[in-house]
Amino acid sequence: MSRLPDLDESDLKILMELQNDGRMNYAEISRRTGIPSSTVYDKITRLVNKGVIKKFTVILDKEKVGFGVSALIGVETGAQLYKNVAKELCQMHELIKVYGTTAEFDLMAKARTTSLEKLNEILNSIREIKGVDDIFVIPILKTFKDEDIVPLSESIHAFVVEGVTNTKIE
What we know:
Layout: H1 9-20, H2 26-33, H3 37-49, E1 69-77, H4 82-90, E2 95-100, E3 107-113, H5 116-127, E4 132-140, H6 153-162
Antiparallel strand pairs: 1-3, 1-4, 2-3
Helix pairs in contact: 1-2, 1-6, 2-3
């Protein structure tokens, strides 16, 4: 198991609770984890300052806000323009994820939009980016799981069962 740098068992417990409900107050986190409220506050502040917690946000129901069309887009690029293409893709707000890969495509992106017509406009914009050799589109017909969480439970298990010790964030 790879070790989590600068995180102790208490940090992981707090992070798990916040991943489940980012609006949970310190007293409730304290009750659920057994960590004193003042320590919860200090640890969360430290985790934010160290960049472990990037931001607190709201998860919207995509369908209910009119963004029910999604697609995965494979992008082939030339090696020399790979970084430039990635940068351009990252600037497109309809592309919610952009990955570099070693698969058939150099880059993979996930688009989320309001209609197939809008998706077609996005695809045309991608085709116009200098350095894009080809694209391959996989429409998403049904989403069975869509979570953006880090599976911390196995790391907590390692602390409890294996007695892993890490240094705490200062």
